[in-house]
Design goal:
Strand content: 15-25%
Number of helices: 3
Strand order of the largest sheet: 1-3-2
Helix content: 40-55%
Distance between the termini: 16 Å
Number of strands: 3
Radius of gyration: 12 Å
Largest sheet: 3 strands, antiparallel
CATH superfamily: UreE, C-terminal domain
CATH topology: Alpha-Beta Plaits
Structural class: alpha+beta
CATH architecture: 2-Layer Sandwich
CATH class: Alpha Beta
Length: 70
């Protein structure tokens, strides 16, 4: 798995998940439940991970949607 995006913005996270799901790209959101550890204040970023073989397509999809990724 490769990290595609790291964010603590729940709206962006939801949008990225919807884009990936619609495109049929498998993904996993790591650290989603870390709010228990942080006290639910949203300071710890969530990471969107995709399979290595889908990473290029996923990055292109996010660039097309004008989402700034490294």
């Amino acid at each position: 798995m490769e990290e595609l995006l790291k964010t603590n913005d729940p709206v962006l996270l939801s949008f990225v998940e919807a884009l990936l799901a619609e495109a049929g790209i498998d993904h996993f959101v790591a650290d989603r439940n870390m709010s228990i550890m942080e006290g639910s204040i949203g300071i710890l970023p969530r990471r969107v991970l995709v399979p290595r073989e889908s990473a290029a397509a996923a990055r292109a999809l996010l660039r097309d949607a004008e989402i700034d990724i490294p």
